[in-house]
């Protein structure tokens, strides 16, 4: 029986090496339109199609990263709960508590949504940059602080970027607290080029690209000119380690099956 999900190969012929060489001036063949890749066919992602998936963040970068794995129809509901955990916490503990708080707060606010129903999944994340001296750097609050922050990252050696991700899904079982929560933390080491000039830092600050970003720079944009090298996940520095996030989604959606199997063992 034919597999209805199978998509046949394109019928158009492959491009010819000779086509451009022999084309008359001004009559070069138009390149074929780019085709979007087919969506990832994974059980967890398939189970979420047509359901409420909430990103508890206003970050366009996190939204774009999730779209890359097929989560394109996201509801954007940032947490309004104050992020006031003490900076004296270890960086990994700080981001973990903040991400978990965001996820649980948004889930609690939407679970009894009468018009839309409870969410099938809530994804939250928090990212901080930690200087070589162990100082947690969040978003710069002024232009002068922005300049000082970037100079300290250049002069202080390698720094680390921590992102915590928290994912929540409701449980069909009556197990307390009624939802499954999974979290992860990822760290990436980043080193600025020591030859970056004060003039370049000022010019970058003037672009305002890094004004809304932890550490004051965006590695996925113009800010890459400040960076000499990284060790670890690139998308973690952008704000969401996407491979780890996909793993959390798969794990949290399996919780009901695991609970059902445990219950059967004790019957």
Description:
The protein has 267 residues and is of the alpha/beta class. The chain contains nine helices and seven strands. Strands 1, 2, 3, 4, 5, 6 and 7 form a seven-stranded mixed sheet that branches. The longest helix has 20 residues, at 91-110.
| Element-by-element helix/strand order | HHEHEHEEHEEHEHHH
Mean pLDDT: 87
Q: How many DSSP E strands?
A: 7
Number of helices: 9
Q: Tell me the structural class.
A: alpha/beta
Q: Per DSSP, what share of the residues sits in E-state strands of 2 or more residues?
A: 15-25%
| Poorly predicted segments | none
- Tell me the helix content: 25-40%
Largest sheet: 7 strands, mixed
Summarize this structure briefly:
This protein is an alpha/beta fold. It has nine helices and seven strands. Strands 1, 2, 3, 4, 5, 6 and 7 form a seven-stranded mixed sheet that branches.
Quickly list its features.
267 residues, alpha/beta, seven-stranded mixed sheet, 9 helices, 18% strand, globular
What secondary-structure arrangement, pairings included, does this model have?
Blueprint: H1 17-21, H2 43-48, E1 53-55, H3 60-68, E2 75-76, H4 91-110, E3 121-130, E4 136-137, H5 143-155, E5 159-170, E6 179-192, H6 198-207, E7 227-231, H7 234-238, H8 242-253, H9 255-265
Parallel strand pairs: 1-2, 1-3
Antiparallel strand pairs: 3-4, 3-5, 5-6, 6-7
Helix pairs in contact: 5-6
């Amino acid at each position: 029986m034919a597999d209805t999900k199978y998509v046949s190969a394109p019928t158009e012929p492959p491009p010819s090496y000779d086509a451009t060489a022999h084309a008359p001036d001004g009559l070069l063949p138009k390149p074929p339109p780019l085709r979007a890749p087919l969506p990832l066919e994974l059980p967890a992602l398939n189970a979420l199609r047509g359901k409420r998936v909430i990103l508890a963040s206003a970050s366009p970068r996190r939204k774009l990263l999730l779209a890359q794995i097929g989560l394109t129809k996201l509801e954007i509901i940032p947490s309004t709960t104050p992020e006031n955990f003490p900076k004296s916490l270890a960086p990994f503990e700080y981001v973990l508590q903040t991400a978990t708080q965001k996820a649980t707060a948004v889930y609690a606010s939407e679970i009894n949504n009468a018009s839309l129903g409870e969410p099938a999944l809530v994804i939250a994340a928090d990212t901080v940059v930690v200087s070589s001296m162990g100082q947690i750097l969040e978003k710069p609050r002024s232009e002068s602080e922005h300049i000082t922050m970037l100079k300290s990252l250049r002069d202080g050696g390698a720094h680390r970027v921590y992102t915590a991700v928290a994912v929540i899904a409701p449980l069909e079982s009556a197990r307390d607290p009624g939802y499954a929560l999974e979290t992860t933390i990822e760290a990436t080491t980043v080193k600025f080029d020591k030859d970056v000039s004060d003039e370049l830092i000022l010019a970058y600050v003037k672009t305002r690209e890094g004004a809304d970003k932890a550490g004051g720079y965006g590695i996925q944009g113009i800010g890459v000119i400040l960076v000499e090298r990284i060790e670890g996940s690139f998308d973690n520095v952008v704000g969401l380690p996407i491979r780890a996030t996909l793993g959390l989604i798969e794990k949290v959606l399996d919780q009901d099956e695991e609970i059902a199997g445990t219950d059967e063992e004790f019957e």
